[in-house]
Specification:
Layout: E1 4-10, H1 15-27, E2 35-41, H2 46-57, E3 62-68, E4 71-73, E5 76-78, E6 84-90, H3 106-118, H4 140-151
Parallel strand pairs: 2-3
Antiparallel strand pairs: 1-6, 2-6, 4-5
Helix pairs in contact: 1-2, 3-4
């Protein structure tokens, strides 16, 4: 299967509706989504946004993302007010996982994350997209080294 990607952005202030609209845009592309990366400004109600996104996408698509100071899209930059963006991906053989409290034994937490990712795949990943809170006290070099010891 060929890898494909589709992006979309929204400036809708109603968080539930923004999630629905972006999810519907991705769902109507005629391709099977595996993974959606999403980013939205802090003004949004994140729980309502995710409910709307899930309503449109269903439960089988992995959704990952974070809040952001601003959202950037094709010919679009919004740092204030309401903005949300999505990147829908398919044809990757994607997996998603999470570990908590990564500042405590960062290396071991990286290894734990790597094992969780590999458990969902039939082959080692070709790429890893990593989101983490840089302010939590994590040692990022040890965290990433632990992750790659497992997934390489």
């Amino acid at each position: 299967m060929a890898i494909f990607a589709h992006t979309s952005v929204s400036t809708t202030a109603d968080s539930l509706q923004a999630g629905r609209e972006l999810g519907q845009t991705l769902a109507t592309q005629g391709r099977e989504l595996e993974l959606v990366l999403t980013y939205l400004t802090m003004n949004h109600d994140h729980a309502a946004y995710l409910r709307g996104l899930r309503e449109a996408l269903g439960e089988r698509v992995s959704v990952l993302g974070c809040s952001a100071q601003g959202v950037v899209g094709r010919n679009f930059v919004r740092e204030q007010g309401y903005a949300a963006g999505v990147l829908g991906l398919g044809g990757l053989g994607a997996s998603a996982a999470m570990v908590e409290d990564i500042s405590a034994d960062s290396s071991a937490k990286g290894e734990q994350l790597g094992r969780a990712l590999l458990a969902q795949l039939s082959a080692p990943p070709k790429a890893v997209v990593l989101h983490y809170d840089a302010l939590c006290g994590v040692d990022p070099e040890r965290f990433v080294a632990g992750l790659y010891r497992v997934v390489e």
